[in-house]
Amino acid sequence: MRYVRIFLLHTQEVFEERSRLTVWFLLSWITPLVLILFWRGAKNLGGWTIQEIASYYLLVITMGVFLMSHHEEIIAIRDIQEGGLTAYLLKPFSYFWIRFFSEISYRFVQGAIGFLIFFLLIQFFPSYFVFTRSPLILILSIVIILLSLFLVFVFKSIMGILAFWLTDARGAFEAMGVILMMFAGYLMPLAFFPMWIQSFVYYLPFPYMIYFPVIAFEGKLTDVQLFKVIGVEIVWIVTFCILFKKMWHRGVKKYTGIGQ
Amino acid sequence: MKTLIRYLKVYRTILRLNLVQLFTYRVNLINSIIGHTVWAAFIIISMLLLTSRTSSVFGWTRNELLILAGTYNIILSIFYFLFSRNFNEFSNTIHYGKLDALITKPIDIQFLMTCMYVSYTHVIRFILGVGFVIFILNQMHMVFTIVTFLWFILFLVLSIVILYSIWLLVMTITIWHTKLSNLADLLYEGHSVSKYPQEIFKGASWPVYFILFPLTLIVTIPTKVLLQKMLLGDIFWPIIFAIGLFGISRRFWKFALRYYTSASG
Prior knowledge:
A: mainly alpha; 11 helices; B: 2 strands
């Protein structure tokens, strides 16, 4: 119940910052929309139609605003470097879950707006949207999406607590941003990558953050493949949770109350 | 002339102070170099990946698109070197009332707000960009004359002026909405549209094309100069937009300053 209160409090905060929220929302639309325009002029679309590509990028936008949390900088700068963590350590709450419930309030509000726009676009431009109508695939896709939400959260939390060891984590965050742009599927569908890249990229956690939720929702995966994606996501979540716990216990010992 | 010399002297001091700061925080220096190198590489790699399945996009061949990406790195690195850190600080300076201290100084406030910080670490991105463009031009057996070089420098300067003016126009909004620090993030994302050929936006609806038009000139025109594909019409738009946007942004900044209400705003 207390975590629900945290969630509700932060949801209020989201609505307090409406203008900032709008800017973040607009920001997530720019690159995918430009890439749709780019592919219109490409001679070879790798077996995809322009409708499928447009649908892919519009789903990347929608999934992106819902799934991609941005709390790593809050953890690294506000909490660890500037000493804000002290207030949380003194409270009878788990820091991990406080951050989780505060972050998902942002994700739910942004995701709701994203899905609303997506729904409206489907009504006006139905031919431009490809997504599954099978109830089983839809249910499995929702499971994949929810697991991705948690996977991204734990991964970004790990990135954030790197600040226990790094006095300035900006370089690490920039590298992470680039890796996500390429391997999470923001840049283009991973199926367009050369085969030698595809052969290793599916072993990484990044495609499971955006790419697989999108193509699962599009109905591009079979039942077996969907279960496989769920399995891999669970493996990555468990791995990251263990890693986070170990890093947290070591990091907190290094933490000084006045900041790093 | 006297004023210009005075400002050049001030800027020399700014450059020196920033250099001292750079070497004081060495971990930041290493971090920034890693970050900029990764981004410079990403721009090139992303273009390589986008063109891995297609030989041309809107009439631009793969090598031409790679030169476009390299030129984007060159132009952006100069802009980031000179101005980006200043615009990043805009919202904080205004929100916390730090502008009070600057506004009382006997120097142009726009100059102080937009030129006080220099990011030396972006030099690495510039070097990588130049090296990459020369490499591809060599592969294409392009002849690079002194005339081409001078045209390129002219359009490079115009592009920086356009970018500066757009950033100033947008960031000035923080005078009224002081918490909108993420406007800078919007601009970083926004000017990334310039790394694609101008032609791709012609299919977009006219309001979108109209808004994006100045951004589409920034990299496409200097790249056309390098590829010796520049048309007569290409010369005028960057000049018109550079002069027009610079004038408008300066007027808008001066107008907005009347509404500055210090930290209590």
